[in-house]
Specification:
mainly alpha
């Protein structure tokens, strides 16, 4: 087994298990068993469980940042949410992982959320430069609100899905409804002008 494939398997196992059973409910031994490596190998590469979590945070956020940047720059089109998810099946585990990372609280959650705000700000700038997003007056406030919407969907994804008749936020029918509503809110708003 190459070092690279071992690290990839550890990361994939950690993201999947942390997302499913949380950080407290997932042991290094369980991750090692899923990745078919020794717990000592995980400790060798990451030092401890917290080091592995930081690595997973950076990987998951970086992966999602790249996908969004590609979309905003016009490099990716999303004709069908179902097709997009079949091309990116890793997003299911990653969204569950981020939900757990945000729910755990403390400095680790704040680090993840701060990076989500930074990403939202970068996405706004990219979208404005590409002519896909209208210019805004308060970039930081808009970024914080957009990141909070994403955070809420990660943390409450299963509850949102249950309300809309699915098991996961990424069920194609659920995601399509949520995407359509979010796109409409972002493009048209919700409030009518005041009556005179």
């Amino acid at each position: 087994m190459s070092e690279d494939s071992g690290l990839t398997r550890i990361r994939e196992a950690a993201v999947e298990l942390f997302g499913r059973t949380g950080f407290g409910g997932t042991t290094v031994r369980a991750i090692a068993a899923r990745a078919e490596v020794s717990p000592a190998l995980i400790m060798h590469h990451f030092g401890n469980k917290d080091g592995l979590i930081r690595h997973c945070d950076d990987y998951v956020l970086g992966h999602i940042e790249k996908l969004r940047d590609d979309y905003l720059r016009g490099g990716t089109t999303i004709d069908s949410v179902t097709d997009y998810l079949s091309d990116h099946p890793e997003l299911i585990a990653m969204t569950r992982y981020l939900g757990q990372a945000l729910l755990i609280g403390g400095a680790a959650s704040r680090r993840v959320f701060d990076r989500m705000i930074d990403t939202a700000r970068n996405n706004l700038v990219t979208g404005i430069e590409a002519g896909r997003i209208r210019p805004v007056d308060d970039l930081e406030a808009y970024a914080a609100i957009l990141a909070s919407w994403n955070a809420a969907s990660f943390m409450l994804g299963d509850a949102i899905a249950a309300r809309l008749g699915g098991a996961s936020l990424l069920d194609p029918g659920v995601l399509e409804r949520v995407k359509d509503a979010a796109d409409d809110l972002r493009s048209r708003g919700i409030l009518l002008p005041p009556k005179e």
